[in-house]
Fold this sequence. Notes:
This protein is of the alpha/beta class. It folds into 2 domains: about 10-285, Neutral Protease, domain 2; about 290-435, Collagenase (Catalytic Domain), CATH 3.40.390. It is about 55% helix and about 10% strand. It is built from 17 helices and 8 strands. The chain has helices spanning about 10-20, 45-65, 80-90, 95-105, 130-150, 160-175, 185-195, 210-215, 225-235, 245-255, 260-270, 270-290, 305-325, 340-350, 355-360, 385-405, 415-435; strands spanning about 35-40, 75-80, 110, 115-120, 290-295, 330-335, 365-370, 375. It has a 4-stranded mixed beta sheet, sandwiched between helices. A 4-stranded mixed beta sheet has the order 5-6-8-7, with helices on both faces. β7 (about 365-370) and β8 form a beta hairpin. The N and C termini lie far apart (about 60 Å). The model is unreliable at about 1-25 (pLDDT under 50).
Amino acid sequence: MKKFFAILFASFLVGMAIAAGYLFTSEKDAAPQGVTMEAIGDMPESSMDDVQQAVTLFTDDMTKNGAPLRHAVTVYVAATQEDYRRVIVEQFEQSADEARAIADVSGGWTGGRRGLTALNGAAGVMKTASDRKSTAGHELFHQLQYELSDGNDTGAESLFWLEEGTADYIGARIAEQAKGKTLRKWSLDTLNELRLAESTVKPESLVHCTLAERMQLMNKDYHSYQMADAMVLCLMEHQKGKEVASILKYFRLLKDNRDGEAAFEQAFGLSHDAFLKRFRTWYENERKRPIELTFSARAGVADGLAPSLQRDAAAAREALQGAFGTVPHGRFDVVLCGSEHDFAAAIAEHCDVPQDKATELADGNLWIENGSTIVLHVSELSDARQQSFAMAMLLARLLRIEAGGRPEEHPDAQLDANIETFLDGYASRLSLRRIR
């Protein structure tokens, strides 16, 4: 997540950097010094393997894009919150209070000048294999941002949202290359989370930020990282085929000019003000986008079922509009599974959970939701009426979550009663249609 900032006089910084050997050569032919890893505490070997895979993929990807990480980096992977705090105290030379504040809000911490990165194995962003790979990629890209910009990437004149949003984008790219969460899922999950948030930070608050402001924005209630990610998603739609090249160009430009807006315009071909205007329109359109379900069928699912369910979903959406005056919003991928065994396998794959947990989730459920992905067990739908009703239930569930949160977490007797009345009426209409 956030980078390490030392609030020291510039002359002292330079002196210490030279003494410690942290200043690296700017020669283009300088040989990369490599990334080393160190487990702190009882870190599972499988988790270390995930981080190592991310290191390898990141190194290869950035090298292919003409930006190999040249300075030496040590990645400390901490098993517990206490281990993570200890790394920040001992390696980043922070006080116990400062380390506690950092550990409470971050899953990773990077000091480019020191060539150090710490990963918090106890944080939510390190929970699954895909998370660990994307988080490691995120933090390593902070190292590259520092290197390309000669340390100007975190200055108050740079663009905070672009710094963090592109680190998340590269992290998501690494996870996809590792056969984890895809870039598409990361994109749709990000927009889904923002749509369901009670409140979010304004994009204008993510432009020029001091260290204190950056620390405050790390509070998860603000959804600052998701907003920064959405801004990058919008930006990347206009950089087709040159996404990574444009991002790297921005940080290179910061090396000789700390002005983030100037570097942005040169790198992306439009002014920052024009982009913010474009983003506001894009984001509002995404928030108001009526629900779109994209169906995909796994092996064993009958031919023609996916388009049939697509039609059923369209009918259910029309009925919801008539009953409630609105429909759910956003884009969702629906994965169809033809057997209980494949249902569990698909849950493990798409929800990034161990197979035993996936088997437990599959037992007795018709579908499992994971952000923008829905895994559906279609062998439980024995006839056309059940298929139609299942789509009505699914859309009603998504509308309930959007309107009032998950019912198991946010009870609302009146809203739940309205949903139940709608479904009862829908079932009756399906029965009448079948009789006729």
